[in-house]
Amino acid sequence: MEVLEYLERKIKELEIDRVQTLADLDLVKEKIEKADAQRGTQPGTPNYHKWSEILRGLESELDKSRVHLTAVEADLELKRHKLEDYRQKAAEAEAYRAALPQRILEMSIEEVGQLTAEEIAQLQEYELRQAALAEAESAAMAEAQADQPESAPAPKAPAQAAPPPPPPTPPTPPAAATDRRLPPALKKIAEGDTGNVTLDEFQLLTEVYVSLIELPALDQKTERLLDIIEKALLQINTAFGSLRESWERIAANAGD
Question: Under a CB-based contact definition with an 8 Å cutoff, are residues 210 and 138 in contact?
Answer without folding.
Answer: no
